Amino acid sequence: MITITVILVALMVTADAASDILVAKAMKQIGEVHDFRPRALIKTFRQMAGNRTLMTGIGAAAIHFFTFLALLSFVGLSYVFPATALVYVMATAGAQFILKEHVSRRRWAGVTLVCAGMLLVSFS
After folding, report:
1. How far out from the chain centre does Cα 10 lie?
2. Which domain, by its residues, includes 107?
3. Is the CB of residue 83 less than 8 Å from the CB of residue 121?
4. Is the pLDDT of residue 91 over 80?
5. What does the DSSP 8-state code read for residue 37?
6. 87, 17 Cβ separation under 8 angstroms
7. Of 45, 53, 65, 77, which residue is 20 to 30 A from 124 by alpha carbon distance?
8. Which of 82-108 are b and which e, b meaning 16 or more Cβ less than 10 Å from the residue's Cβ?
């Protein structure tokens, strides 16, 4: 039971971070929406529907969601939710190394504090 729990938590965290990174990358490819007229929005939605990176990101989000539900079916929320703090580490690392964003030391310190806080919550 513990082995399947660890595997599902790892899958959930990886899928969540991957979905965040992929959706961010796709939206950079598509660009900012400036025109909110119906025709322009339809064009943007078509662009989004044809973007493989975005569709893969949405698929990863679905994997995260269903893995989260599966975990909640046999492990309590008080176990699952603190484990999700690892997403902050993976998503921030992905932003820095995959998306080539600048991540300051202050932001890394914040991620560390979030993880430390979730660790404290999990022990209480």
Report:
1. 13
2. 2-123
3. no
4. yes
5. S
6. yes
7. 65
8. bbbbbbbbbbbebbeeeeeeeeeeeee
CB 16 within 8 A of CB 87: yes
Q: How many CB atoms lie within 10 A of CB 115?
A: 16
pTM: 0.87
Residue 24 · residue 92 · CB < 8 Å: no
Q: Backbone phi, then psi, for 120, in 5-degree steps?
A: -65, -40
Task: Write the DSSP symbol of residue 31.
Answer: -
Q: What pLDDT does residue 1 have?
A: 65
CA 8-118-23 angle, 5° bins: 60
d(CA 122, CA 83): 8
Count structural domains, the chain. Answer: 1
User: What digits encode the pLDDT tens for the residues 56-77?
Assistant: 999 999 999 999 999 999 888 8
